[in-house]
Amino acid sequence: MPPRFRSALGTRRHVLGLALVAGVVLTACGQAQPGVAASIDGDSLSVTEVQERTAAFTEAYPDIANQVTIDRITAVTIQNFLRGHVADSIARELGLEPTEGELDEFVEQIGGIEEATRQVGQGGVPPDPELVAAEIRSAWIVNALRELNLEEVTDPEEADAATRATVDEYSAAADVSVNPRFGTWDGVIVTPANGSLSTVPDDPDALTGAGAIQVPPG
């Protein structure tokens, strides 16, 4: 059974779930097919989907979009897709499938759906209910994995390290390809082909690509 979240979630501020998965190490095997922006283990994200999500994000969050390039937003969109697939793989293999009630409780711990939407928006996710729900689910899965690790070790930092190690293991086993039109995957980020990530102006935290869900102290 998936672990229940402990009261420790309410005792200190955690940067949870998606921040951990954002730094995964994936292996790029080949190139995506025409019309495909990226693929992982046979699941594809189309060029059209990337364009639509990028446009929706830019429209919904102009203050963030004005601080970064379109290429940056596109790259983060692809990263979010890859990260979500890795979380899904972990859930299937380790039996960490959340129930609707557990997800509802998690959203309340975050501070409600509006706060969750705001937080994932800072990670490049447009306010589409399905995309937001997917990010919340991914965060829950990685937090559940962390809770399992806390049953083996008492030090939260050791639990974080063990969680990253598991995520890296599943990521390394994934078959990933990114359309060269959108850049290259270096194991941490998708860097646009024109190198625009190096010229992101002013605020490097404007669009983290981490989509970090935070549970405030209760």
Describe the protein's architecture and organization.
The structure is a single chain. The chain is of the alpha+beta class. It has one domain. Helix content is 49%, strand content 11%. The chain has eight helices and eight strands; from the N terminus they run E-H-E-E-E-H-H-H-H-H-H-H-E-E-E-E. It has a four-stranded mixed β-sheet with strand order 2-5-3-4. Helix 2 (47-60) crosses helix 4, helix 4 (70-94) crosses helix 7 and helix 7 (129-150) packs across helix 8 (156-172). The model is unreliable at 1-16 and 18-30 (pLDDT under 50).
Quick overview of this protein structure:
By secondary structure, the chain is of the alpha+beta class. It has eight helices and eight strands.
Order of helices and strands: EHEEEHHHHHHHEEEE
Number of helices: 8
* Beta-strand content bin: 5-15%
Total individual domains: 1
Alpha-carbon Rg, integer: 17 Å
Mean pLDDT: 80
